[in-house]
Amino acid sequence: MSRISPEAAIGVFDSGVGGLTVMREMMRLMPGEDLIYLGDTARVPYGIRSEETVRRYARENASFLLEQNIKMIVVACNTVSAVGLDVIRELTSVPVVGVLTPGAQAAVRATRKGRIAVIGTEATISSSAYQRAIKKLDSSVEVITRACPLFVPLVEEGWLDGEIVEGIVKRYLDDLKNIEIDTLVLGCTHYPLLKGTIGRVMGKGVRLIDSAIETASAVKDLLNRMGLLREGRAQEGRRIYFVTDSADRFKRIGTRFLGREMEEIEKVEIGSKA
Questions:
Q1: Distance from C-alpha of 127 to C-alpha of 129, rounded to nearest angstrom
Q2: Alpha-carbon gap, residue 239 to 260, rounded angstroms
Q3: pLDDT in tens, 221-259
């Protein structure tokens, strides 16, 4: 196995713009790291796909990132984290970090009543991956799950707030307020872009767990333990973005969310569109 260089970039991928929530936190925590992001915008959303298809997409995306000379793969997609990490680890010896485990750990730490709700895509929820991860940490915790399939299309279209968005969020989440949860896991990296609306609907008594924040912290800790953290770099790292469909909407939404221009965006072909 060739030695992994601390100077290599970190590769990140998601089905679309959602993984930028993880990118933003990584930029904040590790400003000197070079970051390469792949948004598979031609095949979004992943949450309605079969497990077999998601695993194929995961393999293709990871293979592309590995060609970019990276030191780590961050799977900034809960759907892939739920059903596809193993196929990525079969491809490479570089560390692979998903978003599911950090989110589950944070939820168990946060709950006071032992009643946690998880919202996510249909694929993530049907996999029961969050239930297993949370129960493994604390078997006494009650886990309630809810698929919210319209949230990803809303975010991808740039609909992040307003009456229509709030109405859709209420339709999915209103009844969760009646079962006395105190912790809500945003089990899709797109969902933090709706955090303001979700927070208003759920009220102040429910803590929202943003897996992006937890994942960025886990990435930094793992790089540090492995001696791969890029330290002592004064200037900001380079950020490169790849998409598999038109870059215009990705850039518009991404710039709004990151609060900064996205200079390097390139469209690439990966696998099949199906």
A1: 5
A2: 11
A3: 999 999 999 987 778 999 999 999 989 889 988 887 787
272 in any annotated domain? no
Q: 73 and 19 in contact (C-beta within 8 Å)?
A: no
118 lies in the same domain as 203: yes
**DSSP at 209:** E
Domain that holds residue 82: 9-98+213-267
- Which residue type does 250 have? F
The reply to whether 150 and 170 lie within a common domain is: yes
- What CATH number does the domain containing 147 carry? 3.40.50.1860
Same domain, 199 and 145: yes
pLDDT bin (cut points 50, 70, 90) of residue 196 is very high
Q: Where are the beta strands (DSSP E) in the chain?
A: 9-14, 35-39, 70-75, 96-98, 115-120, 142-147, 183-186, 207-210, 239-243, 264-267
Half-sphere exposure of residue 42: CA atoms within 13 angstroms, side-chain side: 16
- What is the per-residue pLDDT across 12-49, written as a single tens digit (0 to 9) for each? 999 999 899 999 999 999 999 999 999 999 999 999 99
Q: Which of 191, 209, 220, 192 is nearest to 26 (CA)?
A: 220
* Residue 239 to residue 241: CA distance in whole angstroms: 7
Just list the catalytic residues.
Answer: 77, 188
Rounded CA-CA distance 228/10 in Å is 10
What tokens does 130 get? 């969050």
Q: In the beta sheet, which residues pair with residue 120?
A: 147
Q: What is the pLDDT of residue 112?
A: 96
Q: Transcribe 63-78 into DSSP letters.
A: HHHHTT-EEEEEE--H
- Location of structure tokens 């598979």: 40
Tell me the C-alpha distance between 213 and 50, whole Å: 28
Relative to beta strand 142-147, strand 96-98 is unpaired
* 105 and 205 housed in the same domain: yes
Parallel, antiparallel or unpaired: strands 264-267 and 239-243: parallel
How far is residue 61's CA from residue 75's CA, in Å, rounded to a whole number? 10
